[in-house]
Design goal:
This protein has 15 helices and 16 strands. The protein is an alpha/beta fold and about 450 residues long. It folds into two domains: about 140 residues, Rossmann fold; about 290 residues, L-fucose Isomerase, Chain A, domain 2 (3-Layer(aba) Sandwich).
């Protein structure tokens, strides 16, 4: 087991054969010793694997976890028997012992996860897959606790759909740090051009800017510099930004490229101050360790019931695109003028597997709910603006019905990976959210 954990890039904290019999935990005294070791290393421990090479001692397992009081995900693994080795000397019985261990953990109120197969060899590819999924679950569950999100600006008046309960999020360990756009603008007004030089260089390296006026690029660089400084000062990890249409009218650019760069660097950023939207982005990013985007469920694609167009204006991270360039935001340009809307990232999403997620605060019940699922971006032709791609999702019509019947938002977080199950496992078992898997 230690070799399997280390091969996956992790380190192990466990008692040794010098500390307990064979390095196992079977007695009350051994449970105390192991729990003390876990408590000593609690800041290093992201999850616990209970490995059963034989039946195991059900009480010692539960007692250890109760006394350690780590509040991290737990994976139960049982080693399979070999048909030709079933004598009293060789038979493991972990097949049965796993049920007893799970029963005790249930009695103790300790949540746990299971391997895909009831028994699985620790040196198998199947267990390597289990370990990868469990690692993703640990990152999501631990990453959501004590999460700090920056809300930059007020919710646009026309977007009631992104309303949420800050108090419900706080009760779930997620804090919101707010800043008014006037403060952002005030800090920008005090800046010299030179102070934005580093960010301006980053923008030029990030995306093609041939079509964009120099003064607009400098404004973006100043906006990005101020946001970076504020996020560092307030120790927020991710953000949601007001866009329509205050920044365009009163500052003269869209924030899309600045937000795209943050998401590309795993500092997820959502538009329209969609706080719950960026939570979905962050969950997928934690699971996959790759950038997430926020998209609209936007259009049908012909008459294929399992296909749709996902679109945003856009602030998608570069990771999503086949190729990308900076241009102006065609929708808002019709209101405030093209010259005030430069900064959007334009291109088609590359084909490949995708996971999606949406979380919302259920204000009537005081809970967090959501849905997750998987599909794929296709290579189907699409002649449109902004950042867009065609998705294929099995039984899409039932998903769309679910979204509408339950009153979910039109925004959805997406990630180019297959991590929906790990996100749901973390959200339901370890965070206590109500999450549907499509």
């Amino acid at each position: 087991m230690i070799a399997a954990v280390e091969k996956a890039g992790h380190s192990a904290v466990c008692v040794t054969p010098e500390e307990t019999k064979h390095g196992a935990v079977e007695t009350r005294a051994e449970a105390v010793r192991c729990a003390e070791l876990f408590q000593k290393h609690r800041k290093e421990i992201d999850g616990v694997i209970v490995t059963l090479p034989n039946f195991g001692d059900e009480r010692a397992i539960a007692d250890t976890l109760r006394m350690a009081d780590l509040h991290v995900p737990v994976l139960i693994q049982a080693t399979p028997d070999t048909p030709g080795r079933m004598t009293i000397r060789d038979r493991r019985d972990s097949f049965c012992g796993k049920m007893s261990a799970c029963n005790n953990l249930s009695q103790y109120g300790i949540p746990y996860s299971l391997t895909a197969q009831h028994t699985v060899a620790v040196d198998s590819q199947a267990f390597a897959n289990d370990l990868a999924s469990f690692s993703a679950t640990c990152r999501v569950a631990n990453g959501m606790r004590r999460l700090r999100i920056g809300a930059i600006g007020a919710r646009p008046a026309a977007f009631n759909t992104v309303r949420y309960s800050e108090k419900i999020l706080e009760a779930n360990g997620i804090s919101i740090e707010t800043i008014d756009l006037s403060e952002i603008m005030g800090r920008i007004a005090r800046m010299s051009d030179a102070q934005a030089g580093s960010k301006l260089d980053q923008i030029h390296k990030y995306v093609s800017t041939d079509r964009v006026p120099a003064d607009a690029l400098l404004k973006m660089a100043k906006l990005g510099t101020v946001i970076d400084q504020w996020m560092s000062e307030t120790q927020v990890s991710i953000s949601a930004v007001q866009c329509w249409t205050s920044l365009e009218e009163f500052f003269g650019v869209v924030p899309c490229t600045v937000m795209s760069m943050m998401s590309e660097n795993l500092l997820s950023s959502a538009c329209e101050v969609d706080i719950c939207g960026v939570i979905g982005m962050h969950a997928l990013q934690l699971a996959s360790q790759t950038p997430s985007a926020l998209l609209d469920w936007n259009n049908n694609y012909g008459d294929d019931p399992d296909k749709a167009v996902c679109f945003h204006c856009s602030n998608l991270p570069k990771h999503f695109f086949k190729s990308v360039r900076m241009d102006f935001q065609e929708i808002i340009a019709g209101t405030v003028g093209k010259e005030n809307t430069y900064g959007t990232c334009v291109g088609l999403v590359k084909s490949g597997p995708m996971s999606f997620a949406r979380f919302s605060t259920n204000d009537r019940e005081g809970t967090i709910r959501g849905y997750v699922g998987e599909g794929e971006f296709t290579d189907d032709p699409l002649d449109t603006f902004g950042g867009a791609g065609v998705v294929r999702i099995r039984h899409l019509q039932s998903l769309l019905r679910f979204i509408c019947e339950r009153g979910f938002e039109h925004h959805v977080a997406a990630n180019l990976s297959t991590v929906a199950a790990a996100v749901r496992e973390a959200a339901t078992k370890y965070l206590g959210w109500e999450v549907h898997q499509h």
